[in-house]
Write a structure and sequence with these properties.
about 240 residues, alpha+beta, L-fuculose-1-phosphate Aldolase, seven-stranded mixed β-sheet, 8 helices
Length: about 240
């Protein structure tokens, strides 16, 4: 029996905030892409955005409470089937995957389109992801059914999946950390691809320095709530309806 272990109202507000901030950062695709947050002890009951609501207008009350053991047909047209299969499989098969942020943001998706979609450690931000991204190059469609199940098996002990020819997803214990990872991953991809576009030789950092820096970032992970609080402070002032 699943038991709810988080404050669902506050979880809804956190998710609504990161949807709206993703829109402000132009990391969204209108009503496409999805975030989800498992609120039960076994990870099977989760919140996710409904189909048809623009990221920039998401409200806390818009978030749907879903069960990973059901099917999209149980929820009708309010659920995007591709989102259901990908997020449902991830939560069902990876109970540690509490919050999932899946995006097709500009630079990360451009990197996913390269033959080798690896992010090299060329600056402090890209070092955060050194040896910490599961890279999938087996794209086989839009994430329905068997493709979603396949994707759910490649996470391992990492917090991120670079989905070749598709986009990426971050997985973390909270919306704050899942969004922080997504935000900095997109910025790291922007720096990396901009540097590559110069045509000049990249200054790739040694593995030892990249690993040292990644571990320093992991210490900083303990403070990511401050990033989300800062975002919510701005939204409380400028778009308070996100909380409703």
């Amino acid at each position: 029996m699943s038991q709810i272990i988080v404050d669902i109202d506050e979880a809804r507000r956190d998710l609504a905030a990161i949807f709206r901030w993703s829109a402000r950062e132009a990391m969204h695709e209108g009503i496409a892409n999805h975030f989800s947050y498992a609120v039960s002890d076994d990870g099977q009951i989760f919140l996710m955005n409904p189909y048809g609501v623009h990221f920039s207008k998401m409200r806390a009350s818009d978030l749907l409470l879903l069960d990973a053991r059901k099917t999209p047909s149980d929820y009708g047209e309010t659920v995007d089937p591709t989102a259901w299969w990908i997020h449902g499989a991830m939560h069902r098969n990876n109970p540690q995957a509490r919050c999932i942020v899946h995006l097709h943001s500009h630079y990360a998706t451009a990197l996913s389109a390269l033959k080798d979609p690896s992010l090299l450690p060329v600056d402090q931000t890209s070092c955060r992801f050194f040896n910490r991204v599961a890279v999938d190059i087996g794209f086989d469609g839009m994430g329905l059914d068997d493709e979603a199940e396949r994707l759910s098996t490649i996470l391992g002990n990492k917090r991120m999946v670079m989905m070749g020819n598709h986009g990426f997803m971050t997985v973390a214990e909270s919306p704050a950390l899942a969004f922080d990872l997504a935000y900095y991953y997109e910025r790291a991809c922007r720096t990396y691809l901009t540097a590559r576009a110069s045509g000049l030789e990249l200054s790739v950092l040694p593995d030892t320095i990249a690993e040292k820096t990644a571990k320093q970032w992991e210490i900083q992970d303990r403070t990511v709530d401050q990033h989300l609080r800062a975002i919510r402070t701005i939204l409380d002032d400028e778009e308070p309806e996100y909380r409703s």
